[in-house]
Protein: M28 family peptidase
Amino acid sequence: MTRNFLSHLVTSGCLSTLLLIGGAASAQQNPFSGDKRTAIKEADLKRDLFAIGGNHFRGREGGTLDELRASMWIAEQLRASGLQPAGDDGTYFQFFHIQRTRLTKGSTLRIGTHQLTHGQDAMILAPGIATVNAPLVYVGTGTAAEMAGVDVKGKAIAILFSGTGPAELSYRRFLTGVMRDRSAELVKAGAVAVVFISDARAQDYYERWTTGYERGRYDLPGGPNVQVVAQAPTIWLPAAALSWVRQPGQQLTATLNVESFSYPSVNIVAKVPGTDSKLKAENVLFSTHQDHDGVRKVVAGDSIWNGADDNATGCAALLAIGRAFVQKPGRRTALFVYHGAEERGLLGSRYYAANPTAPKESIVAVLNAEMIGRNAPDSAALLGSQPPHRNSKNLVATALAANQASPKFKLDTLWDKPTHPEGWYFRSDHLSYARLNIPSICYTTLLHKDYHTPKDEPEGINIAKLAGVTRWIYLTGWAVANQNERPPVDPGFKLER
Structure:
């Protein structure tokens, strides 16, 4: 991975700048003193990581009993550590509903003589209502030359997916983006269905990444992702289908219907009250999510998608930071929010941001932990550290100074750029708060080959690195909790989308 380091910011006086931000920090001479740096224990992190990210909680899928069981366990650890409940009705919990829309089991799909089953030998990319009985026209890779003279109106168009695309981690988003955009283009021209057949590279992703399509779409109740609409279906087939899809004279017939369900999910909310008579009314919000993908298709003999890095690492980190604040509270209140159903579309953070259990105006900063235990031991990233994603220069300066104090990670800035194909800034819970103009940053050690696979196991986590990122978050939060002034929002902050 190519890195563009932020060393020039660190060496240009971030620490001295931070010490001038607030009288409390200046009076302490160094808000990152040694007792703060030793408050985070590797043994605690490892114990909690293996508990949350192990098989016992079956991958903690959002909207399932497994997510709820894991949430109860986390709340009990918070209680035992001395953190106070800060959820609804004097509890550690804020329950909310999520809505799921999926294709019905009675939906049918046939191409020629081949009866296809969604989730097994075909994937329908979005659940919707459709009745199709149309000729199937195979157009190769769909180049301009191959499409010349093809009347797509009233037809089902079959295309062999072909595209070089970016590197491996970004290729999935490239692939689905191309399918979405090309399908919309053909439907606008009159096609009644679009069928993509995997080439060799797309087949690898068909096998690894399509489990999400089986479950349908999720949103908060009434949200746009769960609206029941009639639409021309986009269908994704495995590479083995090419031999028979390309045969002429076939008919595509489909009768697709949808059904909708409501499930409970939960945010876990706890706090350590501040010590200052005035500033304790303000909150430094430490953020993470407890859910992952649950039990899915078997890959190499394993059906539990544990999500040890995504995001048991963040869960363990917040437990450790909470204990540190119990031992020595800050002037401001430390508020801890574990968001449910993040993998369903940031649903828990969207719900909490709209229905906070503390006054929204009291939240001075959000420090979000998202996948913080893999990749090179000396590298990490801070999302929201550069425009247009940066919404508080002051908060970023504090975080950079904390990193320079300990653990001195080399900071990759490429993934925070608006041009990065992964769009990583938009895929974690800090986003829900940044959209409300609350100063927000996200700590991450970025994606890896085991991301959203059953191979994301606790044994793959670098515990020393996890401890380093946890200390970094804690030191940043401690400094913010003790500054006289809250971090201001940058004038004119506006995300690119």
